[in-house]
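To whoever picks this up:

The parser on our side crashed when reading a file containing two proteins. I've narrowed it down to the boundary between the first structure block and the second sequence. Both blocks are reproduced below exactly, byte for byte. First block:
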Amino acid sequence: MNNDETERINKYIVSVRWQNAKSYEKTAPHEYTIRQWKPDLEEEFIWFVNYIRANGVKEWFYKKQNIYFYYKGLKYWTMGDAMENTWVINRTDDMKAYR
């Protein structure tokens, strides 16, 4: 990861709202941000989703495999849908394996 990428990621993650996923607090605690919450940052949302997918690692979440990108003590992921159907980025500090 180069300095420009680091700066771009940092700028994006502090510029969006992260909401606690209340329905998963006990089973798979995480936060999420929604693409439509910051329409002025849609280009950055798309860039970050593509970055996660290109630079992350495949791991299992029970019976589903996701691509997780580890950054500054958190892991980020999407649900793997096509970009036009991708509307959420998730993150967590919960590093346990879900198998």
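<<boundary where parser fails>>
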Amino acid sequence: MVKKRFIAGAVCPSCSASDTLMLIIESKGSETVECVECGYEASEPESKPAAPELDEGMIGLFKP
């Protein structure tokens, strides 16, 4: 299953068009951003960085 969502207020780094970027989330978890105006595409890196360890003074990590 593929989910497609537009990113409100986003500006394409290639053509500088506003509100033309679409986030595509595939069922296997990969994410791609595509500009519907110029065809620009960007994907998330294959290897994600390891989560940092919590310090004693740290309450938690914010994950948006």
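After patching the parser it read the second block fine. DSSP finds no helices and four strands in the chain. Residues 2-43 form one domain.
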